Amino acid sequence: MPKTARALSSSQLTGPTPIRDVIAKYQLTANKRLGQNYLLDTNLTDKIILSAGSLNDKFVVEVGPGPGSLTRSILSSGVKKLIVIELDQRFIPALEELKRTYQEKFDYYIMDGLEFDYGRVGESQIQIFSNLPFNTGTKFLVQWLTLPTWPPIWSKLTLLFQKEVAQRIVALPHSKTYGRLSVLAQTRAQAKIIMTIPAQAFTPVPMVNSALVQLTPKKTVLEEGIWSSLQEISRLGFQQRRKMIRTSLKPLSPDIERIIVQSGLCPKLRPEQLSVTDFVKLSTVLHSSRS
Q1: What pTM was estimated for this model as a whole?
Q2: pLDDT at residue 134 above 80?
Q3: pLDDT tens-digit readout, 86-102
């Protein structure tokens, strides 16, 4: 047997078709309408997976695997089971190749990830990874942050966003990027930017850079009514972020100014001047006044 052949491992001999060959074989050109941008650098996808810590014997869900570049890095990390959710039916042949290779370790659903029931995974804790489409990334994050049961089924989110969206998630008060997404994310999770990824790393090359964000859920559980009030307050407040909160929050209660003062806040403040703790205080008093 030639030396080059002996050097190959069994996984290399029996593994799935190389990712670029898969794209060519099944004509999987990125769909601009679906916001698809492929990340094909194995070194980079491996680095993303390593940033989440050990995945040995973990249950993982990936949303929007596309041709499967990040998927392969997850499968090589020692996971117990990976489930992927993909909307685009064109990727079925590529996913079938992975299924044949990894068998019971891998499964997939062809459906809208926003409609996926994470309870069907059958585990109390999962990690979620995604190279989120630019046009739906925020929707996915808000859904994961507003799950009815908290702490949630996910123990960590490792997600790629447009850099601008990532900055909004971790933004602090008194900044231009601080908004409703910042409040929701930081109320329910510890959020941090792990790395910035240049546009040139993607195929096709998008107009903006991306960033990898990790979120770990906080164990603190807000009463359902307080959490609901916080969502209302943050939505109305940042819809009119230039206005004082006594004006923008008026639709919530005819006594909103009294409620604001009772929360220990000045009615003349604007929403970007309120910390996450301030939003929780205000939501608690609003909920109490309604009860």
Answers
A1: 0.91
A2: no
A3: 999 999 999 999 999 99
Domain final residue pick, 188, 217, 246: 217
DSSP of the chain: --HHHHTS-HHHHHSPPPHHHHHHHTT----GGGT--EE--HHHHHHHHHTT---TT-EEEEE--TTSHHHHHHHTTT-SEEEEEES-GGGHHHHHHHHHHHGGGEEEEES-GGG--GGGG--S-EEEEEE--TTTHHHHHHHHHT-SSSS-SEEEEEEEEEHHHHHHHH--TTSTT-SHHHHHHHHHEEEEEEEEE-GGGEES--SS-EEEEEEEE-S----HHHHHHHHHHHHHHHHTTTS-HHHHTGGG-TTHHHHHHHTT--TT--GGGS-HHHHHHHHHHHHHHH-
Q: Could you list the residue range(s) of the whole structural domain that residue 102 is in?
A: 3-217
| Average pLDDT value over all residues in the chain | 92
